């Protein structure tokens, strides 16, 4: 323990971390004032169109300020935070600006800069108090006599040398323990800064990538096995029949030239061989992609599978409407593979098939009355089906108790691709994906849990600041300013989670345009955010003395901005205005 304290006291990084705690308060105050002034001015002047370039300049300005923070953190603490921004696409200024606004790093930088004011101020106060108390006690014998009434240290007034000397070990102890503690606080602050200023891996996305890598390996292996099967079927089936057909025709030709009456029988056999070869080629082609599925739809293809199955199969439900090709092909091969497994392994006397849309998904259910005991990863072909269904963000479930038959159920999102009834409009790459209701619910639950942690953290910071303000005697109303900043961050964070839930498949059901759905959601999100910002500006107006009601201009600009965005074709107007002011 002593060695660790000594190491901390002698390390240059320790004092660099303390220097950053002191710098954070100064930087946070300057950044907060700049951002609040710039954003308020830009929003207020939006109605005159002058505010648009001001807001654009603020977006790039807070990116530069965040980069300045990264460099200061690296210089003082040694913690290198890589620039998290995505590469900007090639194209005009409007395209690059949209990419910057769509980058999560842009808004994480803004959150950090706004939080830097209260958190930086708190770290500054803590560092100054610890250093002031320690250095005062350590150096008090040198200047205790300077104040005419002595030096008040709270618990006593020091006005004699013995009293001043008694404070020396106290000051030394405060510095001995406080400097390592401040260094630890600086490292914690740097780690917090890295979370917001750096790039972070999404655990859910990492897990999904791992699953996709495993599925890719299995799909490649299955494709290789399928190619070998096709080659073997061609070699052992249709190729041998075609060879026999050629030999039979040559013999028939020779006998016909000799006038042999049996040549007609040989030609008939050759015709039968040709028919069998053609049937085998059709079966082979059907295994690759059935023509009946493309030409007549999923319902006809399901009835064809049932008619060719080795056990009686009843099609309980088959959709009459058409679905996207990947969805139909996946549903077809799920039923086909299940019927093959029933023939090979189940020992069933009958089976049923039901396929139909349900809550934005295409649900495929195949049941049999066989021996049961099937397993998803037993190599029966179901693993390949799970990968195929998973490629469309679907799920495959299996219930197969021993002697209880087997029930295979696949759920394929109809929104995995654009529905056939939806306009085929090009969407930007950063557009939110359409999720199934279950996926959207799980994602929203994770976002709400993360929101609770963030709000709790903001609540702890708020309580700390209020306690510092109260313990210092509440000399003035400076506490209002960091509380306003924390309230703005908390409200915007909560609105982003609660007012902008993931796009569900049920949200686009019955809609003709996916882009229109996204525009309505975007308009609602922006209107809510602007309402929060305007309340924040009103709070600043009240804290500043409630004189001339200048927030009215920001409110008018916000209303005009929302109205313009609600107009049809507003995106084209935005591009022309931006090109004009750029």
Q: Sketch the major β-sheet.
A: 5 strands, mixed
Strand content: 5-15%
How much helicity do the residues have? Answer: 55-70%
Strand order of the largest sheet: 3-4-5-7-6
How do the SSEs run, as a string of H and E?
HHHHHEEHHHHHEHEEHEEHHHHHH
Query: Helix segment count?
Result: 18
What is Rg? Answer: 36 Å
Mean pLDDT metric: 77
Could you list some keywords that capture this structure?
582 residues; alpha+beta; 69% helix; five-stranded mixed beta sheet; 4 domains; Heat Shock Protein 90; 18 helices; 7 strands
Q: What does this protein structure show overall?
A:
The protein has helices at about 1-10, 10-45, 50-75, 95-100, 105-145, 160-195, 205-255, 265-290, 290-295, 300-310, 325-345, 380-390, 435-470, 480-500, 505-510, 515-545, 550-565, 570-580; strands spanning about 150, 155-160, 315, 350-360, 360-370, 395-400, 405-415. The two termini are about 60 Å apart. Helices cover about 70% and strands about 5% of the residues. With about 575 residues, it is α+β, with helices and mostly antiparallel strands.
């Amino acid at each position: 323990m002593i060695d660790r304290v000594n190491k901390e006291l002698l390390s240059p990084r320790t004092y660099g971390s303390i220097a950053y705690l002191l710098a954070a308060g100064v930087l946070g105050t300057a950044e907060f004032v700049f951002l609040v002034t710039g954003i308020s001015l830009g929003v207020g002047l939006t109605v005159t169109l002058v505010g648009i370039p001001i807001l654009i300049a603020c977006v790039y300005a807070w990116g530069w300020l965040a980069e300045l923070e990264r460099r200061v953190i690296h210089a003082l603490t040694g913690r290198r935070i890589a620039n998290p921004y995505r590469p900007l696409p090639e194209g005009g200024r409007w395209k690059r600006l949209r990419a910057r606004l769509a980058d999560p790093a842009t808004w994480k930088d803004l959150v950090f800069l706004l939080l830097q004011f209260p958190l930086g101020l708190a770290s500054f106060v803590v560092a100054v108090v610890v250093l002031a108390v320690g250095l005062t006690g350590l150096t008090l014998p040198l200047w205790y006599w300077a104040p005419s009434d002595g030096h008040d240290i709270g618990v006593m007034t020091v006005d004699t040398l013995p009293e001043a000397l008694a404070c020396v070990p106290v000051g030394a102890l405060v510095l001995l323990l406080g400097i390592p503690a401040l260094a630890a606080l600086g490292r914690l602050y740097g780690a917090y800064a890295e979370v917001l200023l750096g790039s972070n891996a999404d655990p859910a996305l990492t897990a999904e990538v791992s699953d996709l890598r495993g599925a890719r390996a299995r799909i490649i292996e299955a494709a290789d096995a399928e190619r070998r099967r096709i080659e073997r079927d061609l070699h052992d089936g249709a190729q041998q029949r075609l060879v026999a057909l050629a030999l039979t025709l040559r013999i028939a030709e020779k006998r016909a030239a000799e006038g042999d009456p049996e040549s007609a029988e040989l030609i008939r056999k050759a015709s039968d061989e040709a028919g069998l070869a053609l049937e085998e080629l059709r079966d082979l082609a059907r295994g690759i992609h059935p023509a009946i599925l493309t030409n007549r739809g999923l319902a006809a293809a399901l009835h064809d599978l049932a008619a060719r199955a080795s056990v009686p199969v009843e099609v309980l439900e088959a959709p009459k409407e058409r679905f996207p090709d990947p969805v139909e092909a996946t549903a077809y091969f799920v039923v086909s593979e299940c019927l093959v497994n029933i023939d090979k392994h189940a020992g069933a006397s009958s089976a049923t098939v039901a396929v139909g849309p349900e809550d934005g998904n295409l649900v495929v259910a195949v049941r049999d009355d066989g021996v049961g005991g099937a397993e998803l990863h037993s190599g029966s072909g179901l693993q390949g089906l799970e990968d195929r269904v998973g490629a469309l963000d679907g799920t495959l479930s299996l219930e197969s108790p021993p002697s209880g038959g087997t029930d295979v159920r696949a759920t394929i999102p109809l929104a995995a691709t654009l529905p056939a009834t939806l306009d085929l409009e090009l969407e930007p790459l950063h557009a939110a994906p359409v999720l199934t209701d279950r996926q959207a619910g799980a994602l929203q639950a994770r976002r709400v849990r993360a929101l609770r942690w963030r709000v709790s953290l903001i609540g702890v910071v708020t309580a700390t600041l209020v306690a510092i303000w109260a313990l210092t005697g509440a000399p003035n109303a400076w506490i209002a300013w960091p509380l306003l900043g924390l309230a703005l961050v908390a409200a915007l964070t909560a609105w982003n989670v609660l007012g902008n839930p993931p796009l569900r498949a049920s949200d686009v059901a019955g809609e003709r345009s996916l882009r229109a759905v996204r525009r309505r959601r975007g308009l609602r999100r922006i209107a809510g955010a602007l309402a929060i910002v305007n309340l924040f500006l009103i709070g600043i107006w009240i804290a500043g003395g409630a004189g001339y009601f200048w927030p009215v201009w920001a409110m008018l600009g916000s209303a005009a901005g929302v109205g313009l965005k609600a107009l049809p074709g507003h995106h084209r107007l935005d591009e022309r205005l931006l090109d004009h002011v750029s």
